[in-house]
Structure formats: C-alpha cells, structure tokens
# Entry
Amino acid sequence: MEEYALIMRHEDGKKVASPEQIQQWMKQTMDWIGGIAAQNKFVSGTGLPFDEARTVTNRDAKKVVTNGPFGEIKETIGGLIVVRAESVEEAVEFAKGCPVLQGEGNSVEVRKIARKDGMH
# Structure
C-alpha cells in the first residue's frame, strides 16, 4: 500500500465565506475524512490558513518575501490530507468525495508520496 497526498486547491482564495458556511464546510470535510479513517486509510492532514502565509521568490538573484500567495497566483492551497491506497485510482476515488469540489473551479490534486527509502 502506498501513501498519497490529496492537495485541496481553491480557485479564488480571496473570496470570503460566512462563519456559517465555513462551519458547514468543516463538518462536511470532517465527515469525508471520517469515512476514509473508517477504512483505516487516513494518515494525516492539515488546513493551511492564509493569515500566516508568506511567499519567497527569486528575483534578480535576490530572495524576496511577500505576505501570502495573494495577487500572485490564481489559486490557493487550502489544505491537504495523506491517505493510504492500493493504487492511484483508489486515491482518486477518495479525492472525488472531497467537499472542496463543491466550489466552481476548485480541485484536488493527487500525488504519490515518495517513500523514505527512496523507492517509488
């Protein structure tokens, strides 16, 4: 069994949701993760809040730090979870159930995690 990162991307990170919407989405996300955990396939996960985000870029051989990813990118990463799966196809099936996909243009990227021993 391999581990896969399911990376949740929001097309427009500048949109502000109401506290009620956020609470509803969090419940849906916890229920989704609970379903994966019930199969003993949830490894870990975290949200990525915007208030402590910084972007470091290389401009003219200088490292430039800006607050957040705002304005520089069209989409933002809202969080990620790591799952165990028999195949990338199984990991994709987990991703298809992610509540973030309710938002137009949002996506969940599925990436195999390199093993610690360097083997694929």
